[in-house]
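re: ur msg from earlier - yeah i can do the S-adenosylmethionine complex, just paste it... oh wait u already did. ok heres what im feeding in:
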Amino acid sequence: MMNLDPVTYEAWYHTSRGAWIGEREFALLMQLLRPQTGMSLLDVGSGSGYFSRRFADAGLVVTGVEADERMLAFAQAQSANIPYIRGNALALPLSSESFDYVAAITSLCFVDNPQQALAECWRVARHGVLLGLLNRHSLLYWQKRERGGYRGARWDTWKNVASWQKALSPPAVMLKHKTAIFFPSGGKLARTLENSLPGKLPWGGFLAVYLAKRRKKQD
Ligand SMILES: C[S@@+](CC[C@H](N)C(=O)[O-])C[C@H]1O[C@@H](n2cnc3c(N)ncnc32)[C@H](O)[C@@H]1O
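and the outut:
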């Protein structure tokens, strides 16, 4: 498991590059999720709470679950409106189908049994599971693997998720995936190029996957 100081971790999201990456990742996640206001979401491996707060600001009713006490305390201090509970992604301390959505954003990449963690997220979700993963088929992998906050992370491909989901019960009715962060420097040219590249390209460093348990009317 990673061992990051929450203050340093959160501060990264407030750097120019970190803010750009956070924004791009959140936009991609919301494109896949398309939630209705007021739906509930469990954020697994919520860390400093960056995405929990983003989801809550977008109108979702969010709960965070996190294994690291320091991350939990930090996230809770940022927002009294979001409950954070201590728990392990491999055995979530929550009832089956107790949240509309379960999200795990760059947390399953630090879990040694992602298939089990996905099955746990699946159990707790009513409508579907949203994953944010580190994409092995990306420039980010070649530039950042085993550096800084990426140290110890597993880098996946959407095909890994496709294989993990085969064991899900009930089976997923749909798997959608998109990527972002094609040029990880986050400089001016990188940002311009990023805006003109479609999320369907499979080489972004951030891989977002949505697995639906039930079909929405508009799908
Ligand atoms: C890279 S951080 C991501 C935090 C947040 N989701 C984000 O994207 O900013 C990974 C988080 O997953 C948590 N984590 C790792 N393994 C976990 C597990 N088995 N159960 C719960 N949380 C876990 C870590 O403590 C860490 O806070």
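cool cool. The longest strand covers residues 125-134. ping me if u need the other ligands too
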